[in-house]
C-alpha cells in the first residue's frame, strides 16, 4: 500500500483536535505538524505519538514547509481566531496575509497533493488558496458549510426527535452571515421537512438564527469552536485517502453551478482521491436562488477587493 502522509499547518485548538481525530479515525503513516510556535508542535507530536498502541503505528513529528513535498494532503487551520462579537469576514485582512505566507513555501516544496482549508473566512481563503497556488480547482477544498450543516441537523433532531442520520438538510452559501438553509427541499425520515407540524415558519426562522449564531455562542462561552470542524476535516481527509466518494457540503469551486463562477462557496460536493470530483447543484426554490446569488455577491465583493 502507498504511504499516506498529511501535512498540517496550524497547531491551535482546531489543528490539535483535528490531529487527534485524524489519528483515531484514519490510517495514515506520517503526520507532520507545522506552526510558528515550534515548541507547541514538538509537544503535540510527542503527545500524539502515544496514541500508537491504541490506533496503530504512525510517525508524528514537528516539521517545516519542506516536509510538505511528499504529502498527500496539506491541511490549513492556521489563522487568527474569531473573538466574541467578530464576524468571520472581520478576519479577512489578517488571515489573507497569513495565508500568503503559507501557500508559497508549500508549493515551493514540490507539494502536489490536495489543499484542505478550514481557516476563516473559509470561502474567501479557499478561493485565494487556489489562486495563490495555481492548483487545479478540484485539488483545493474548504470545509465550507459542513459545520453549519451539522449544526442544522442537530437542531432539527432536537425539534423532531428524529435521529440525525435520517435528516437530509443542508446549509448553503457562505460559512457566515449570508448562509441559508434549504428547508424547501429538506427531507426528514423520508418525509418533506415542511410536512412536520412542529416545524412551522416561525420555528424554522428561530432554527436558522440559532444555527447561524451557535458558533458565536460557543466562542462567548469557551473562547473557540473546534470539535465539529475538526471532525469535518477528518472526514474530508478520510474520503481523499480512502477514495470514499463522500458527499459533503463544502467550499466547492463554482464553475457555473447556481450561475456562479470563479468562487468557492458552500454546496454539496463529492470528495474522492482526486479531491472534488463533482459539485452537486441542488434544486433550489426561487427564494433560495436569490439567497445563493446574494451570498455569492457578498463573497465576490470581498475577493475582488483583495490585492494579491
TrEMBL record:
Pfam families: Ldh_1_C (PF02866), Ldh_1_N (PF00056)
Location(s) in or outside the cell: Cytoplasm
Pathway assignment: Fermentation; pyruvate fermentation to lactate; (S)-lactate from pyruvate: step 1/1
Domain Lactate/malate dehydrogenase C-terminal: 145-303
Catalysis: reaction(s): (S)-lactate + NAD(+) = pyruvate + NADH + H(+)
Binding positions (NAD(+)): 10-15, 35, 65, 79-80, 95, 101, 143
Biological processes, Gene Ontology terms: glycolytic process; lactate metabolic process
Keywords: Cytoplasm, NAD, Oxidoreductase
Presence of the UniProt keyword NAD in the record: yes
EC number, as in UniProt: 1.1.1.27
Record text on subunit structure and interactions: Homotetramer.
Protein name: L-lactate dehydrogenase
Gene this chain is encoded by: ldh
